[in-house]
Design goal:
This protein is α/β, with parallel strands linked by helices. Helices cover 31% and strands 19% of the residues. It has 5 helices and 6 strands. A 6-stranded parallel sheet has the order 3-2-1-4-5-6, sandwiched between helices. The protein is globular. The relative contact order is 0.19.
Length: 180
C-alpha cells in the first residue's frame, strides 16, 4: 500500500471525489452502505483511514479491493494513517497533490469535522443533529451495532460474521483481532 490512491482507472478533471475519513476499526457493512450512499454526490469515493492502526488500514484496503471487484469507483489513500493529522491539513495536502479534482470530505455520523469546506456526514440510524455550515447530512437506515459494540461481541466469542463483507471477516479471524 502506498500513500497515494491506487487507481485502476483515473478520475477525470473536475470529478467529485468523496474522501471517506474514518478509523475503519473494523469496517462493517454499514461502512459499505455509507460508501454506496456517497455515490449520490460524486463519481469516486476514496477510503482514507485516519488516526488508526495497521490492521484497520489493511481492512479498509480489503473493502476497497472488494468494491472495485464489484465495479465501484472506490480507491484507497493511506497518506494520513500513521500521522496525527487533522482533516483540514489532510484536505489541504491532497488538494495540492491533485489540484484538478474536486474533493469533498465525508465521514460517519459527523466525526472529524473541523473542515472549513463542503462536507458530508453519513448518519446511520436515528441520530439527527444540527448541520454545521457547509455540511450535508445523508441518512442511512441503521443496520448494525456500532463497530465498538461489534468488537465487544467478538471478544466474548460471538459470531459476528454477518456484519462484515467476507474478506474482512476472514482477516479478523486470521489475525485473531479483538480477542482478549
Amino acid at each position: 500500500m502506498s500513500g497515494d490512491p491506487q487507481n485502476l482507472k483515473s478520475p477525470q478533471t473536475g470529478d467529485n471525489i468523496l474522501l471517506f475519513v474514518d478509523k475503519f476499526d473494523p469496517p462493517t457493512l454499514d461502512h459499505t452502505r455509507a460508501i454506496d450512499a456517497l455515490f449520490t454526490y460524486g463519481k469516486w469515493v476514496w477510503l482514507c483511514p485516519i488516526d488508526t492502526n495497521k490492521n484497520a488500514c489493511d481492512m479498509a484496503n480489503i473493502v476497497t479491493v472488494d468494491m472495485r471487484a464489484n465495479n465501484k469507483n472506490v480507491d484507497f489513500c493511506s497518506a494520513a494513517v500513521d500521522k496525527k493529522i487533522n482533516v483540514e491539513d489532510f484536505l489541504s495536502w491532497i488538494r495540492k497533490k491533485y489540484p484538478d479534482q474536486n474533493f469533498i470530505v465525508a465521514s460517519l455520523n459527523g466525526q472529524y469535522f473541523e473542515v472549513k469546506h463542503q462536507w458530508i456526514s453519513v448518519v446511520i440510524g436515528e441520530k439527527s443533529g444540527q448541520v454545521k455550515p457547509g455540511g450535508i447530512v445523508l441518512s442511512v437506515e441503521k443496520f448494525l451495532p456500532s463497530p465498538t459494540d461489534i468488537q465487544k461481541r467478538i471478544i466474548s466469542r460471538s459470531d459476528e460474521s454477518r456484519h462484515f463483507i467476507r474478506p474482512v471477516w476472514d482477516y479478523l479471524q486470521r489475525h485473531k483481532l479483538y480477542r482478549s
